[in-house]
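> forwarded from #structure-qc
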């Protein structure tokens, strides 16, 4: 695994880009370098299907001439002077944008926190292969599993180095290790597929390949002999794997850029109830070892932990500098750098847990639908309309009775959030985390 000190050279390069931009006539500028390293191995039925290794170091320069802005991207070895001259020339003929600009100097991180994001463990390709094979073998050993959908393991890192003409220079690197496996149960048209995975910043924190394989196999077997359910109103319990998607929809709806563009169904709801009373949604960029932690955002601003929704009431938007200015607000350090552009996004987002266990939520229903998978693109973030294909298990008299597939569940996200009851089983090992969720008042389309 590449050592963190490699970013020192990139810090010099982005600083040189900013200096070249000022010499070329820019009033202000920032430059970012993004580095990546990864190795992955995929296997199927005991044989290696692919081994991949990649390395990248890219830079992006953003320049401001008055209220005009332009950005250019290149490899890290590009000539700073030539890149800066091209960017400034582009800015001078670009339309004015009153909301663009560097973050206020007073908001920049004064020191770079160590969030424990880097694990120097070296994992050779041979070890990744053995791990993937072990996970697949554990899945195939489950009774009822008839085939493998493949297994994989990977190790890598990603880093960001930022320099601004205000004098800010910051850098950090985060590692990422993962394991996954897909299992197939049954035969012919009755086959079912399911999966499991583990992804962590530290190699020692990963779930074992045997656990991942066994979970995938058991999940696939449980889905055999699925039925359709009757069309009608239904109370739906979302498994955490699916509930994380619901949390993601909420994050998208309170994104400041979407609010400014008037493309969010929650754009007029600041300070109003958007979720059931008692529901709290937090976001914390400074969580140690967090999957989406960062000591500063894509503009050099250190964010802080926020309750985005508190007791059901919307308290904050996710804001970068430009989105904040367009809304007449101040950035809260949620700007994400994607090459030469910056846009707001969540960090370590979590729907906070409730008091009841998942078993208690299931037991509370005489009938209902426990959803383990959704598919399709039926989510409209402008209106909130929600319609997804789904599969899972039917609930009868407070227990999971039989598997269900080939049905559709529908509602509006506004109503879903207002009728959402979180369970107590929150797993924070995800950048977007959610516990099991009960949502009443949805509609099921089946037989």
């Amino acid at each position: 695994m590449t050592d963190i000190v490699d970013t020192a050279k990139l810090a010099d390069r982005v600083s040189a880009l900013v200096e070249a931009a000022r010499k070329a006539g820019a009033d202000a500028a920032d430059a970012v370098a993004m580095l990546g390293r990864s190795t992955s191995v995929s296997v199927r039925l005991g044989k290696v299907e692919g081994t991949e290794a990649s390395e990248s170091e890219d830079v992006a320069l953003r320049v401001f001439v008055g209220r005009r802005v332009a950005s250019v991207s290149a490899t890290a070895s590009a000539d700073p002077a030539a890149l800066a001259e091209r960017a400034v020339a582009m800015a001078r003929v670009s339309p004015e944008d009153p909301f663009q600009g560097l973050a206020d100097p007073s908001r920049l991180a004064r020191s770079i926190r160590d969030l424990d994001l880097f694990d120097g463990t070296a994992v050779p390709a041979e070890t990744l292969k053995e791990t993937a094979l072990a996970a697949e073998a554990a899945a195939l050993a489950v009774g009822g599993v008839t085939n493998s959908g493949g297994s994989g393991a990977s190790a890598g890192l990603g880093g960001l180095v930022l320099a601004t003409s205000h004098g800010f220079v910051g850098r950090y690197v985060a590692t990422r290790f993962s394991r996954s496996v897909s299992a197939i149960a049954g035969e012919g048209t009755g086959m079912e597929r399911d999966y499991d995975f583990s992804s962590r910043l530290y190699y020692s924190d990963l779930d074992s390949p045997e656990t991942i394989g066994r979970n995938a196999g058991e999940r696939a077997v449980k889905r055999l002999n699925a039925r359709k359910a009757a069309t009608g109103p239904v109370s739906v319990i979302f498994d955490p794997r699916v509930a994380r998607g619901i949390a993601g929809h909420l994050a998208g709806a309170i994104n400041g850029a979407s609010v400014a563009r008037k493309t969010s169904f929650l754009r007029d709801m600041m300070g109003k109830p958007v979720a059931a009373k008692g529901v709290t949604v937090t976001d914390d960029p400074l969580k140690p070892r967090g999957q989406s932690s960062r000591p500063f955002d894509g503009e050099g601003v250190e964010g802080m932990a926020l309750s985005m929704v508190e007791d059901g009431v919307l308290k904050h938007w996710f804001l970068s500098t430009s989105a904040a200015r367009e809304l007449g607000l101040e950035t809260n350090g949620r700007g994400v750098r994607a090459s030469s552009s910056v846009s707001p996004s969540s960090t370590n987002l979590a729907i906070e847990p409730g008091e009841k266990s998942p078993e208690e939520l299931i037991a509370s229903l005489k009938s209902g639908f426990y959803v383990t998978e959704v598919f399709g693109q039926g989510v409209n973030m402008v209106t909130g309309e929600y319609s997804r294909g789904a599969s899972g298990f039917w609930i009868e008299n407070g227990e999971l009775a039989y598997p269900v597939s080939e049905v559709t569940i529908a509602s509006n996200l506004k109503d879903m959030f207002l009728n959402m009851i979180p369970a107590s089983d929150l797993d924070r090992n995800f950048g977007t985390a959610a516990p099991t969720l009960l949502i009443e008042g949805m509609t099921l389309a089946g037989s």
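QC bot note: The chain is about 20% helix and 35% strand. The longest helix spans residues 7-23.
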